[in-house]
Amino acid sequence: MKQVSVFVFILLLSTNLVSAGPAASGICYAGCAGVTVACFAAAGFTFGTVPGAVIAATPALATCNAAFGACEAACMAAFFLPTP
After folding, report:
1. CB 81 within 8 A of CB 22
2. 4, 30, 36, 45: which sits with the fewest CB atoms below 10 Å from its CB?
3. Which residues constitute the signal peptide according to the record (predicted)?
């Protein structure tokens, strides 16, 4: 039993403390939203006020929306990666 306690103690001393990246993913989400707002504005629309049917019918908005979805999905990786 004493050997196990010593092993666990050494293991705890040899590891570094890291936390997952909720701050990193939040920054990533904000960046995605900012780029999407600019994309919608370039197409002449306001992000967040356009119905889904209009987004699907307008090729520029559909591209902006697809890129936004891909960007948000990539941000999930930032949530789970450890950050110092």
Report:
1. no
2. 4
3. 1-20
pLDDT in tens, 7-59: 767 766 666 655 557 788 888 999 999 999 999 999 999 998 999 999 999 99
Q: How far apart are CA 63 and CA 57, in angstroms?
A: 11
Do the beta carbons of residue 84 and residue 21 sit within 8 Å? Answer: no
* Planar angle of CA 27, 28, 33, nearest 5 degrees: 100
Q: Which amino acid belongs to residue 12?
A: L
Q: Which residue's entry shows tokens 């990786």? A: 77
For 10, residues 6+ apart whose C-beta sits below 8 A from its C-beta are: none
Query: Predicted confidence band at 84 (pLDDT cuts at 50, 70, 90)?
Result: low
